[in-house]
Amino acid sequence: MLVVLTCLHNKLNNNGFGISSNNNGFDTPSNNNGFNTSDNDDEFSTPYDDDGMYFVILKPSVILIATGIIIPDLHFGPFLRNWWHVRSLQENGMKVEQYYPFRIGMKTQVELKNRPFIIRIVQGNKHNNLLPGFFCESLSESNEEVENDPTSAISNLYKRIF
Fold first, then answer.
1. How far apart are the C-alpha atoms of 23 and 28, rounded to whole Å?
2. Count of domains observed in the chain
3. Which of these three, 60, 84, 101, is where a domain ends?
4. How many CB atoms are closer than 10 A to CB 104?
5. Closest-CA residue to 115 (of 152, 149, 81, 140)
């Protein structure tokens, strides 16, 4: 999950800026020229315009609350590609793919604006009962319906709250 923030910044000097990890779990971008040319998912891209405006893509830390279960008919059946998240990395010049299952009952938590958001994975979404569904809750509020992907689930609730 990515959170995109817009920041106003004076023109960079020749030294650029460094990486730092602050207390709220966010990492800030790093690169001598302010741009990232790496294909690594853990890095950040910070495009600048002529007025010194830049967009910082931050990855908040995610905590696994419940592992959930794998259901063979879903995770290895005809819709298996929908039940796995594939992350591609470059390591030593080789493309490496890591597979992470969306498990039924799996819960993850992320904190945004000092408020916990919990995503729960269920069976079935708006389109099909055999696909994963994503439900988001924060304190006493939650999505009105199951979403098709985790980004929509958290974004819709976030918009409603803030």
1. 12
2. 2
3. 60
4. 18
5. 140
Structure tokens at 127: 């389109």
What is the full DSSP assignment across 38-90? Answer: ---TTS----B-TTSEEEEEE---EEEEE--B--HHHHTSTTGGGSEEEEEEE
Neighbours of 125 (CB within 10 A): 21
Is residue 40 located within the same domain as residue 4?
yes
Other beta carbons within 10 angstroms of residue 120's beta carbon come to: 21
Rounded to the nearest 5°, which phi and psi values hold at 64? -80, 120
Reported pTM: 0.62
Maximum C-alpha span of the chain = 56
- AA identity, residue 27: D
46, 56 contact by CB (below 8 A)? yes
Q: Are 96 and 26 in a shared domain?
A: no
Q: What is the pLDDT of residues 34-44, one digit of tens each?
A: 333 344 444 44
Judged by DSSP in three states, 94 sits in strand
- The predicted-structure confidence for 51-97, as pLDDT tens digits, reads as follows 566 656 667 889 999 999 999 999 999 999 999 999 999 989 999 99
CA–CA dist 157, 117 (Å, integer):
9
> CA 87: distance to chain centroid?
12
